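Researcher: Please predict.
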Amino acid sequence: MAALARGEEGMGILLELEFNTPAVLAMVGVAQVTCVQGDLERTLVLLLEAAELAIRIGHAPALADTLVGFAAYASACGQFGQAARLLGAIAAAQERMSWPVLPHHAQHRRTVEAVHSALGEHAYVAATDEGRALSLDEATAEAMALGDETKRPSVPAVDRRGQALGADDPAPPARGWLGDDTSMSPSGAA
């Protein structure tokens, strides 16, 4: 738990300093931990915010890395077909952009193994092939819609450093870290 608290604190500091790409990667890293711990509501909030920030700054590798987190989240929710589609889209993006590995490559590998095992060879290949046909924007739209399909959670009451807010503290913005001031679209338009 102390490591998670430090990760959230570091994430908050990166956001305050507007070190946006490292902040996206930190959010995905913290989301990995919360996903493994079974806190899927927090995982989804972090991944949605990471994707929105990656779109806003126009950083495709960070966005693809966020999709790895969404694939792990979908897998944890039992949505193995959707996870495989996202993994296919990630693989295609890596090939198109010549990215040999993503920052969270260990999570990527574990997710591929888990989804492949859950679906079996034939279903896994079919779903990843479908995902390979998706653009990064289309895959991002599908990933961000996972929140609608799995009953998007309410935003936890935490400040920018991940500290719990008391009853007398001001409520966080409606979308957490990024607030409502950003209008994201999968096409990258802000």
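Model: The helical segments are 2-16, 20-36, 40-57, 60-76, 80-97, 105-119, 121-132, 136-149.
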